[in-house]
Structure formats: C-alpha cells, structure tokens
Design a protein that fits this description.
By secondary structure, the protein is mainly beta. The protein has helices at residues 25-32, 40-44, 58-61, 147-153, 157-161, 368-381; strands at residues 73-89, 92-112, 119-130, 133-141, 166-169, 175-179, 186-210, 213-235, 255-280, 285-292, 296-311, 315-320, 324-330, 334-343, 346-356, 361-364, 384-396, 401-410, 423-435, 438-454, 462-479.
C-alpha cells in the first residue's frame, strides 16, 4: 500500500455529473416525472379522460369520475414495454434495447347504496412509473480530458488507489495534491442499466354533491425501488501511455485501461392526495378539474463503487461498499383541467396539466448549506410546463367494439431544452365487449424523444440518446350485474 496524506472527501461526494452522485435535480425530477401507465382503455385514449365518466383509473386522473360508476367493477391489467436507445458519442453510435412485462393495474370499484345521487369507493394498485431503461456508448475522445483526470483534479482517493495518479509534495514536505500523466486521448465506453418501478396503492371515494356535479378524493400510498448500474471504461487503444504513470513506481508501466462500476440503489416510500371535480353540463359536454397536492417521498439509498486499473505487468482494484442513508424529496403541486364531448358514435377528450418543476425540493437528509445548494440548482435548471392529452373513441354497432386513439405531449422541464427533448406519444386501441359483464381493452403506445448524459464535467464526454418506447397493454374488466 502506498502512503500519502489522504483527503477524506468521501466517495459519495464524487462529482460525475448527471449519472453519478451527489444527489441533484435529476434525482428529484425522476420521482416527479409524469406517468403514462394506466389501464388499456385510458392509455388508448391518450390518458385524456379527466372529464370522462369513470373507471378505476379515474381514481388517479380525476377521482370525481368514480361517482358516475353505477355497478361494481373489477379490473386487472398487464403491459409489456420495449425500450430502444441509440447512444451517440464522438460521432460513434451503438444501439441498445430492453424489454419487460408487468402487472400494471388491478382495482375494485364499489357503488354504495344511496337515497339520492351516488357514492362510490375504490381500492387497488397502479404502477405509477416504470424506470426500466438502458443505454450503451462507445467512442474515442481525442480531447485532453478523461475521468481519470477529473478524479485526480478532485484529489480523489479512487484514482490514487488504482495507481492512476500519484501524490506531489511542497519543498517543505507537505502534501500538495495529486497528479496524473494521463492527458486524454482515450477510448471511452460503457453502459447504464436502470430498473425498478414506483407503485401506487390507491384508496379513493367520490359522490354526487348536487345534480350532475361530482367530487372525489384519492389517497395514494407509494412504494417502489430504483437501481442504476453503470459500467464505464477508459482504454488506451492507441498506446499513448507506454511509459510510467507514476515515475516512482515501476508497476505503472504501460497503462492499458481503467474500469469503474458504480451502483445506486433506492428504496422509495411516500404518499400523496388529490381532489377532483366533474361537471356534467348536458348530455354532450363534461368538464373536469383536479388538484394533486405535493407528493412527499422518503429515499433510502445505498451507493457503492468498484474500480480497476490494468497495466502491462500489473493490475489493481478497489471497492467502496455503500452505506444506507435517507433523505426526503417533495414534488410540486399539479393542476389539471379537461373537457369531454359525446357525439353520436364519437367521444372526444382533451386535457392539460400545469406543473411548476422549479417547486421541487429536497426536504431533509442533508445539512442546511447542502440543502440550500441542491434546491437552488432546481430553481436554476427547471421550469414550469403544461402537458397535453388528446383522445377520441368511435363506437361501432357491428361488430360491437370501440376504436380509440390519442396523443400525449410532455414538454421537457429543463430550461433551454429544444423540442427534441419533449416526450411525444401516439396511442391506439380497441375495446371488445365479450358479454354484458366482461370487457377486454387493448392498447398500443409509441413514444419518442432525445436525451443526453455526461460521464463527467459538462459536454466533455457526452453521449446523446435517441429513444423510442413501444408499449402494449391489456385490461380485463368484470362488471358485477
């Protein structure tokens, strides 16, 4: 073991930009990003049913819609996701793909006996967010920068313990920081594998407060997990570094490669509450509105790091097992409104949602100065957005079925992002009544958007992402006659 005067900055405070911690606005946004996962009917409708008559998903979109349900309902839904990502770095592209299947919803809806109007309660489960994603990147960085240099500039012990940097001293013998003979010109490659989900356990109720005016509320208990596993390499493919990285250590002759694997593992819990209003103006028009109050999350996190270095005649590794710690995040309030028009054989829906993402905040788990810095970053980088949802349904008398289509538009909340980073989705589906009390709904969604990530620094080792998402959903609805 080499000896130097260590600087105990802690591995958890490494600054590896968007994908390496410390925690930042990207992590807060991950928890408040809008879901697209509902039952197949709602998804095929472009999730635009804020002013429509109810089904179980009304508990999450507009709980007042539950009060229009006249018979008890049981539903069960599954979906499959195909996530494709083309990673482009230094004019080199590589494709990746990831698929998964899951149960995304089950619910029970019970109308209660009333002398006048209606009252309905609902219980169940809905997958609020699917975090599964994957990206690969591989390209030669001809610039004079690298993660090895970034670690060394931060006097981080990881580079030192892998023999990639060495200590320097002042004339009086005091430690004067680390240096490395690496000066860029390395091939950089890697992958980021994300998995997990955020799940909502739903308790909802609604009633008709006066003729054609309905109100409702929903309490969601949230639980879930998120895991991000990154593998990253820097390789001397052109043999630039065939001397000694440390002039005082012969084992550092002829540098070959550097490998980093870091894993972020979350356990998520939280709760939120929303209120909804639905007004049936006449037989043709409905209007709806909801308020979702801020969601309070508690994150239990473990962050671990493993690194390797390889030389011509030697190799080194180091492992930092993670410790668990907790912090809190609060998401912003959401305000939604929409309209539904029922025409002969056609139903048209439209909805919008206002969210001010600058109101995201870290609430606890850090000292006051760190907390202030993190929340100041949120205000600096995030802004408010308006999400749009549109949907249409055509009823065919023969064969008996409903044809549906929709469009979902979620603008990027990051200040300065162009429209390429906005999430766009087309949806389609059909509803098949197999009998009076059994209905099967099918849905398909196609989404596309761009993204980017920085391995370190800002736009020094950036990989751009061209993402497409295809989702298929099936929901079985049983109506108790």
């Amino acid at each position: 073991m080499r000896i130097k005067k260590y600087i105990f900055i802690g591995i958890l405070l490494l600054n590896f930009s968007n994908f390496i911690f410390a925690q930042n606005y990207n992590d807060a946004y991950r928890l408040s990003e809008q879901t697209i996962d509902f039952d197949a009917k709602t998804l095929a409708f472009g999730n635009s049913s804020i002013a429509s008559f109810g089904n179980f998903s009304s508990a999450l979109i507009n709980p007042a819609g539950l009060a229009t349900i006249k018979k008890s309902l049981l539903n069960f839904g599954i979906n499959t996701n195909s996530f494709k990502n083309n990673g482009v770095m230094f004019n080199s592209s590589i494709g990746s793909e990831k698929s998964n299947n899951n149960t995304n919803q089950f619910g029970l809806v019970f109308p209660l006996p009333t002398k006048k109007g209606s009252a309905v309660i609902a219980f169940g489960y809905n997958q609020a967010n699917d975090y599964n994603a994957f990206v690969k990147f591989d390209g030669f960085n001809s610039g004079t920068n690298s993660m090895i240099q970034e670690l060394t500039n931060d006097n981080d012990d990881l580079a030192y313990e892998l023999y990639l940097s060495y200590p320097t001293y002042k004339p009086n013998g005091d430690y004067d920081g680390d240096e490395t003979n690496i000066n860029g010109r390395l091939n950089q490659s890697g992958s980021i594998d994300e998995q997990g989900s955020l799940n909502s356990w739903v308790m909802s109720g609604a009633f008709e407060i006066s003729k054609n005016v309905f109100i409702g509320g929903t309490l969601n208990l949230l639980s879930g997990n998120y895991k991000r596993n990154r593998s990253y390499w820097e390789d001397d493919v052109n043999n630039f570094y065939n001397g000694y990285l440390d002039p005082q250590d012969s084992s550092t002759f002829d540098f070959q490669s550097f490998y980093l694997n870091d894993i972020v593992d979350w356990e998520i819990s939280g709760y939120d509450f929303r209120l909804g209003l639905l007004y049936k103006m006449n037989e043709m028009l409905n209007f709806g509105a909801t308020i979702k109050f801020p969601t309070n999350y508690t994150i239990s996190e473990v962050y671990s790091v493993y690194g390797e270095s390889e030389f011509a005649d030697a190799g080194y590794y180091v492992e930092y097992p993670g410790n668990e710690y907790e912090y809190g995040i609060s998401s912003p309030m959401e305000i939604s409104g929409g309209v539904s028009a029922s025409l002969p054989f056609v139903n048209l829906n439209a909805g919008l949602k206002f969210i001010d993402y600058s109101q995201l905040e870290f609430t606890d788990g850090f000292d006051d100065n760190d907390l202030d810095d993190k929340n100041a970053e949120i205000i600096e980088y995030l802004e408010n957005v308006v999400n749009y949802n549109f949907g249409a349904e055509i009823t065919l008398p023969y064969p008996a079925m409903k044809l549906r289509g929709g469009f979902i538009y979620h603008p990027s909340p990051f200040i300065g992002d162009v429209s390429d980073y906005d999430k766009k989705y087309f949806t389609a589906g059909i509803g098949l009544p197999l009998s009076k009390n059994l209905i099967i709904d099918f849905a398909y969604l196609h989404g596309w958007w761009n993204n980017f990530g920085d391995n370190y620094g800002t736009n020094l080792s950036r990989f751009n992402q061209e993402i497409t998402l295809n989702k298929f959903g099936i929901t079985i609805n049983y109506i108790f006659m």
